Amino acid sequence: MATPVHATTASGVTTLTLDSPANRNALSAGLVAALREALASAAADGSARAVVLTHTGSTFCSGADLKSPCDPADFLALLAEIAGLSKPVVARVTGHVRAGGLGLLGVCDIAAAGPKSSYAFTETHLGVVPAVISAPLLPRLDPRAAARYFLTAEAFDAAEAARIGLLTLHGDDVDEALAPVLAGLRKAGPEALAATKRLVSAPVRAALAQDVSALTELSARHFASAEAREGITARFERRDPSWSL
């Protein structure tokens, strides 16, 4: 069975590539476990100054695997491990990001994207709640924008994602945009870099540490609801759910 996450290290940067094209890099139990294992290896690698999280295909992450979703507690643990990693984690996005994938993107310290990327908090249209991902995202996002996009599930582009705080930067060539970022990280002292990461990630780590059981319970309760069953079934059947007006 092919691994859903590939790791390579070059020039002081470990790149973790999500590679599960069959389900658009959805958050299956296998992908979450593989990413947690890869992050632990990156943390122990003294030659790596930073971690880049990227993807194959046209989708960075489509959110929960609706056929076999991971345990919300495991996903929350993954987010906490990214926030708590001693090395900066940089997201490199060239495709679509949906639902739980936005939590994965949002917990990264720096996030860059190309012009073909798009974003949507699709949970309410499926009858579920963006509960777990609210922890890393609400400290980062413009409050008015968070309320709008969490509630309406509208799609938006990279420029809007940068405006509301989801992205750090975007450009026509994402690698060109990231070049000075990675160059700066390579020049930083490892201990100073780790301490500064702890400093700037404090609000996100605090949010992930509080109300953990409440967020996971809220997520699990709505995923198990009749409304979610109808919403997810409608998605697979390519029709509007019964509640649509």
Would you mind describing this structure in some detail?
It is a single chain. This protein has helices spanning 29-44, 72-84, 100-107, 123-126, 131-137, 143-152, 158-164, 174-187, 190-200, 202-209, 212-223, 226-236; strands at residues 5-10, 13-18, 50-55, 59-61, 89-93, 96-98, 110-113, 118-120, 156-157, 169-170. With 245 residues, it is α/β, with parallel strands linked by helices. It has a domain at 5-173: 2-enoyl-CoA Hydratase, Chain A, domain 1 (Alpha-Beta Complex). A six-stranded mixed sheet has the order 1-2-3-5-7-10, sandwiched between helices. The model has no long low-confidence stretch (mean pLDDT 96).
Q: Could you give a short description of this structure?
A:
This protein has 245 residues and is an alpha/beta fold.
Strand composition percent: 15-25%
Question: How many strand elements?
Answer: 10
Number of helical runs? 12
Order of helices and strands: EEHEEHEEHEEHHHEHEHHHHH
Q: So what's the CATH class of one domain?
A: Alpha Beta
How much is the average pLDDT?
96
What is the CATH architecture term of one domain? Answer: Alpha-Beta Complex
- Rg, rounded, reads 17 Å
Low-confidence stretches: none
How are the strands ordered across the major sheet?
1-2-3-5-7-10
What is the overall shape? globular
Q: What is the fold named in CATH at topology level of one domain?
A: 2-enoyl-CoA Hydratase, Chain A, domain 1
By helix and strand content, what is the structural category? alpha/beta
Sheet of most strands: 6 strands, mixed
Percent of residues in helices comes to 40-55%
CATH superfamily of one domain: 2-enoyl-CoA Hydratase, Chain A, domain 1
Distance between the termini: 43 Å
